[in-house]
Q: What sequence folds into this?
């Protein structure tokens, strides 16, 4: 069957991780700007990052050279809304210009409204703990939709709500770096309500007929064998977790309108009328999988010496097949891979190039598994490699390199990696070279 002619081959980024220009042109401080000191591995920050804010034309030209059909990026809430109720027109202009540049290059813009950079003014009002965040997020959504929806069709509301809540408010490893388990369900409710109201806002005000989803993550279990009962056991375990970082916590209420028993004290019937909105696709971020379980104990180490990325994540290509299969069969929506990629120990070599055969092999193996799902008739509409550029990798700083394009963070010089040229061939042949 193969990939459709309209398949959205592309790559992804997030505003705080690439833009820099943290205090330019009227931008307000976000929670990562103001609160990250002492929480990043080597004391680094995203103040300049990849300088994408000033170099976006160069970056779009690279995407065009590689044949990208789409680009998933996020809008910075504090860049657009510099205070409660106050639009920063200069910040909004950046995204208008970026979208114009993408469209002129024949690249479909895929917009994510929230990828972890909440404004400090909102955090000081209570952040995701307070229901006031819902109206503020709706106002921000309306501003972005008014500005961009004449050229943007694809929208994602919130990236990885699992980590917004779990890393931000439970274990404190991401901004705002607090440990408040007592607030976890309130945070969950406000994120979900913000998602639902944002979907309603996009549908009401978008100028082009919108296609809307969100971008969760979550564990995928691999079968221990190839028998049907092995697959069903892996499926069951993929959705059985009651943890905030699980699939069921978020996707069941948002997509199915079903509230798991462990959230029934947090979400009312009235809440669900807002939260459960019709979506056009199921986006998800997937990097690895869990294979072994024994007497209820999960062990992610499939075997001694298992291949791993430089983030220490097991390389498990089959996860792209099984997560796609399981999510489609459970949620019934076309699938968009919103993130998939690997961190590698990349550097510019003596010949001036970046040779990253591990990433080339990673992309090849994972996409073969995605093609298997497509060939079985699962409607997959696109794949976004994470990420287009080496970038600021949150609490890990600049050490972990995921990019198809190498960035020298001292000079901001870009170097296209070997893996990017391989991916360009995949795009050119629409996956037939796999």
A:
């Amino acid at each position: 069957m193969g990939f459709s002619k309209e398949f959205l081959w592309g790559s992804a980024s997030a505003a705080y991780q690439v833009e820099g220009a943290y205090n330019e042109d009227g931008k307000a401080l976000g929670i990562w700007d103001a609160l990250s000191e002492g929480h990043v591995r080597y004391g680094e920050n995203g103040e300049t990052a990849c300088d994408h804010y000033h170099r976006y034309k160069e970056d779009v030209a690279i995407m065009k050279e590689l044949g990208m059909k789409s680009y998933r990026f996020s809008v910075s809430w504090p860049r657009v809304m510099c205070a409660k109720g106050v639009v920063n027109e200069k910040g909004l202009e950046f995204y208008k210009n970026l979208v114009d540049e993408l469209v002129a290059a024949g690249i479909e813009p895929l917009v994510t409204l929230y990828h972890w950079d909440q404004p400090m003014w909102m955090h000081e009002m209570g952040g995701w703990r307070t229901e006031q965040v819902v109206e503020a997020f709706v106002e921000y959504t309306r501003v972005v939709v008014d500005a961009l929806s004449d050229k943007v069709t694809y929208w994602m509301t919130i990236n990885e709500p699992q980590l917004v809540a779990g890393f931000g408010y439970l274990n404190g490893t991401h901004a705002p770096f607090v440990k408040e388990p007592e607030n976890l369900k309130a945070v969950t409710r406000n994120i979900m309500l913000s998602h639902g109201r944002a979907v309603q806002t996009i549908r009401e005000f978008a100028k082009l007929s919108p296609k809307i989803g969100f971008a969760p993550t979550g564990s995928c279990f691999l079968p221990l064998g190839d028998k049907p009962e092995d697959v069903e056991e892996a499926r069951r375990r993929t959705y059985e977790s009651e943890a905030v970082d699980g699939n069921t916590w978020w996707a069941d209420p948002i997509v199915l309108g079903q509230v798991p028993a462990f959230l029934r004290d947090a979400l009312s019937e009235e809440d669900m009328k807002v939260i459960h909105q019709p979506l056009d696709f199921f986006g998800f971020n997937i990097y690895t999988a869990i294979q072994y379980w024994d007497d209820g104990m999960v062990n992610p180490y499939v075997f001694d010496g298992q291949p791993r990325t430089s983030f220490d994540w097991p390389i498990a290509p089959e996860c792209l097949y099984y997560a796609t299969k399981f999510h489609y069969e459970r949620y019934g929506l076309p699938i968009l891979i919103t993130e998939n990629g690997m961190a590698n120990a990349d550097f510019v070599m003596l010949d001036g190039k970046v040779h990253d055969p591990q990433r080339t092999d990673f992309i090849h193996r994972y996409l073969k598994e995605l093609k298997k799902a497509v060939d079985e008739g699962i409607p997959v509409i696109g794949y976004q490699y994470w990420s287009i550029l080496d970038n600021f990798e949150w609490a890990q700083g600049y050490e972990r390199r995921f990019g198809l394009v190498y960035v020298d963070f001292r000079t901001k010089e870009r170097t296209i990696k070997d893996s990017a040229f391989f991916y360009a061939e995949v795009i050119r042949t629409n996956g037939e070279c796999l």
In short: The radius of gyration is 20 Å. Residues 184-205 form the longest helix (22 residues).
